[in-house]
Design brief:
Blueprint: E1 6-13, E2 19-25, E3 30-34, E4 40-47, E5 53-59, E6 63-67, H1 78-81, H2 83-101, E7 108-111, H3 118-133, E8 149-152, H4 157-160, H5 162-177, H6 190-195, H7 197-224, H8 227-232, H9 247-259, H10 265-271
Helix pairs in contact: 2-5, 9-10
Length: about 300
């Protein structure tokens, strides 16, 4: 969905109108449009054998459409949004390829006190080029004759920034897709990759992954559930698998859920990946009894 900006699924219903299955549809083969009555429809270009293509028009109720940021009718690909950034990265790749194809050597000059004829220049360029192009001796010693002197210049600023530019390119792509750099191994030290993973995952859930999951949950609720079903059912992602290595967070959730009568003992044990206990008392809800209503212990005789 993030690459194309849209996620599609064909909704299959039984004779009573109940949903029985969802079939994923390629986003590149779907085209949403409004007909003359401003009714939303979908054109599905279904490829067939022998290169034949069939066009199928689907109604809004037959398609689950999850949109990324866009104009409301169709979502826009994040690659299209970030085309300029990705174009810069492509240009940097071309420059890096050319730099290392040439041996990865910095710029240099060859000096001589003699005035060369055009023929001598061509002979020198041919001899030097053949030595530099030899993959077996690349990076070795170059033989110069007739008083020629080789002078190596410093690495240019653009060459020195090659590694930093490629690092920024990866960071830019990760930023567009909302992926923490730590999870991509982009941290400066190995200690950051181990000590800060739990906080990075929690931040990822709050700032990037959480809003994306909410968008999908809302689309499933609105497009697949009837108003009566929405009062009975809730569509939610189970994030405990993402947080299963964050023991501190899971323990805090389980403790508060148990103390406030929201979760049973077995539900808490399931969350922190412990085996369930046998017995009905472990499936019952309980809460602390110390809390009372405000004013419950006041003497009515004093209220005059």
């Amino acid at each position: 969905m993030l690459i194309h900006g849209n996620g599609y699924a064909r909704v299959t219903r039984n004779g009573r109108g109940q949903i029985v299955s969802l079939w994923s549809l390629p986003a590149i083969q779907m085209t949403p449009y409004l007909d003359q009555d401003t009714t939303l429809r979908y054109l599905y270009k279904e490829p067939k054998p022998l290169g034949v293509q069939y066009d199928t028009v689907l109604n809004d109720s037959e398609v689950l459409h999850i949109r990324d940021m866009g104009n409301g009718l169709v979502g826009m690909s994040r690659i299209a949004y970030a085309a300029s950034s990705f174009g810069i990265g492509s240009a940097q790749d071309d420059y890096t390829k050319g730099f290392f194809t040439g041996g990865g050597n910095p710029r240099s000059v060859v000096e001589t006190d003699q005035l060369l004829t055009p023929e001598q220049r061509e002979i020198f360029k041919t001899n030097l080029g053949s030595q530099m192009a030899d993959t077996e001796t690349r990076g070795g010693t170059v033989l110069l004759e007739a008083g020629f002197k080789y002078k190596q210049t410093q690495l240019s600023m653009s060459d020195m920034q090659t590694l930093a530019a490629r690092k920024y390119q990866v960071e830019d792509i990760a930023r567009w897709f909302g992926v923490p750099l730590m999870l991509m191994g982009m941290s400066e030290t190995a200690k950051d990759r181990t000590d800060g993973v739990e906080s990075a995952i929690r931040g990822w859930l709050m700032t990037d992954l959480g809003p994306l999951m909410t968008k999908i949950e809302n689309a499933l609720t609105v497009q697949l559930l009837t108003p009566a079903e929405r009062r009975r059912f809730k569509v939610r992602f189970d994030i405990t698998q993402i947080l299963k290595h964050d023991v501190t967070t899971l323990m805090n959730i389980a403790e508060k859920g148990r103390r406030n009568g929201i979760m049973s003992i077995n539900e808490c044990r399931d969350m922190i990946h412990l085996p369930r206990k046998d017995g009905a008392q472990y499936d019952e809800l309980a809460q602390q009894a110390q809390m009372v209503n405000v004013g419950a212990n006041e003497d009515p005789a004093n209220e005059k």
